[in-house]
Amino acid sequence: MPYPKKLLNDYEELAVDLHPHWLYFFEAVFALIATIVLGIVVVAVDAPSAVKWLVLALIVASVLWVVVRYAKWMTTNFVITSDRVIFRHGVIAKSGIEIPLERVNSVHFSQSIIERMVGAGDLLIESGAEGGQQRFTDVHDPDKIQNLIHSQMEQNEKRMFQAHHPDASPAAVNDVMAQLERLESMRERGTLTPEEFETQKQRLLNQ
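The structure assignment produced for this chain is given below.
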């Protein structure tokens, strides 16, 4: 199910709403296929009744595993808005995390060979929010999501600057954005610490 629109702020726009990649089902579906094949073999060789009942129990357990996985998949949302990164999950009881874009320090992605072939991977977000680092697994096209987060961060910084300086000219806004990009590059290279970056960023936005 999609992320509830009623949970968005009035000024907030939804950029992307994702469920986990289909790799999320791999283990459960593999177990179901394996138990079904085992059941066919057991019937073909006319195994004892006790063995047949055991295999039937394994098939039922595998089916339940797939059903539970599907329910969790349907109720897990990775959301990027114009203001936040949101991760929300839970079939009955809900839990999650929200990271304001202005608190995001860096975004990293990783993919194994198989994940790269199917368009999945992990995303690691380092932020000044509580917890510091958050890893999200089974993300669709994590490299594209990384770029989208950076794009939303730039737009969010631009809106913040314009809100503080409504009379600023387009040239002044572009100049501040260029300086922020240089600061972000320095932070990523390690020239600036996250704390120094935040200080310089606030100085630019408030000047």
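Interim note for the steering committee: The longest strand covers residues 120-127. The CA atoms of residues 28 and 65 lie 6 Å apart.
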